[in-house]
Amino acid sequence: MTASAKDFANTHPSEIWEMIRSGQWTGPTPGMAKGYVQANLVVLPKDWAYDFMVFAQRNPKPCPVLDITEPGDPEPRMVAPGADLRTDLPKYRVWENGKLVAEPTDIRPYWRDDLVAFLLGCSFSFESALIEASIPIRHIECSCNVPMYITNIQCKPAGRLSGPMVVSMRPIPAPMVPKAVLATGRFPAVHGAPVHIGDPALIGIKDISRPDFGDPVPINDGEIPVFWACGVTPQAALMASNVPFAITHAPGHMFICSVKDADYAVF
Amino acid sequence: MTASAKDFANTHPSEIWEMIRSGQWTGPTPGMAKGYVQANLVVLPKDWAYDFMVFAQRNPKPCPVLDITEPGDPEPRMVAPGADLRTDLPKYRVWENGKLVAEPTDIRPYWRDDLVAFLLGCSFSFESALIEASIPIRHIECSCNVPMYITNIQCKPAGRLSGPMVVSMRPIPAPMVPKAVLATGRFPAVHGAPVHIGDPALIGIKDISRPDFGDPVPINDGEIPVFWACGVTPQAALMASNVPFAITHAPGHMFICSVKDADYAVF
């Protein structure tokens, strides 16, 4: 019998790092270490890290920075002391000049003294808040990936970086929309409140049934499409801006922090 | 009859920039342009800006970044389009190797193509929230500066920058303390909720009647000293870390943004 991510819902992040580091787990992470923050990874040469930080500061909803490592140091000391970002994610993507060149499970061969790692908040944190508020999440019901769309909302550029905002969409029963706004608004460090509610055309989405990333999900009668800023935005900006070298996590193969979702609630 | 800051409580920030730029106003800014965000200014060579940003990201309560300019560009495009940070503050301080070398009213002679300006949130914003919640503010009652203290809470270091957290103190009647926490907690972008409530010795303050900066204020019977992270922290870290060149605002002579305090409320 093969283990599934949900078997590790109550496993501590430090044990999951060890499982991943020793090659015992190479799959996606959703469902593991329930209540702990899962984060997007972006690794860049120091030369590009400044532009990326300014881009994140100017676009905090899609780019909520949780931690930044010192150049060359793979340990995220604020959100996961003891972890090693070169080995403790199940799968990575290596990018050169905006093109995917490798999908390794260990990035030690690529590591350099000038690399800086950024961990960015991810929607799994606010989905916990939605679930606790008894709001159904369609892509979880459908066991598929969340649908994501490139919008006509331009991020504020910074230095050499620019790009459009990418959003994720969840259909919410109309009477529950205000509760969904409040429940996620408590978590500004992990995308926060929605950026748009209702008519997809108003933010440049032509066909809601054809997401740019992830999987399409049905929108039932009486449901409103609700759009949140998405952690794919910074990666999309890096790729669009022709960054010479970058490493990210592979989709769904996130880094699990040892801080909890609840630590990022404002109230 | 001399004009006072309060005469300009209802003046728009863009008119105040013009007054300051043309030499008509060189005094402190508290009380001007009521409801608009007033900000701390830190100007650094690009070479130091990265360390400062990482320091701010790791220490968001004392260092809430509101805007960062592109190198050489004196316009804060996010929070005050049209303003010029070289001329639109009433007084500046120029620092070399941690020492104050000049207090000009115009920094155009010092400006360089590699300078980056940071605007940081300031407690005036959350004081408006306290006043709206009918919570008295002692240093305003006393018409003096807020008392500030160096604590034994160490900021998380970043690159070449380190230093202790500086806090401001306001005595609050005990029954109003929870309301003061909630009222300021709504504003995480401008220091947010207090960092400490009660016994000053627990955060290394030996004599509450002798602040390290600002003026002492009386604490009456039935009042609790409440401590908020203070925007002097990043300046103190810059000075302690022997930064070769920096420009800041002069105390009390803040930059007035054209965004409003209310824009930074989380809920």
Automatic annotation (TrEMBL), chains A, B:
GO molecular function: lyase activity
InterPro entries to which the protein is assigned, alphabetical: D-Glu_cyclase, Putative_hydro-lyase, UPF0317
Keyword flag Lyase: yes
Protein family (similarity comment): Belongs to the D-glutamate cyclase family.
Protein name, UniProt field: Hydro-lyase
Pfam families per UniProt: D-Glu_cyclase
Coiled coil: none
Alphabetical UniProt keywords: Lyase
UniProt entry tagged with the keyword Lyase: yes
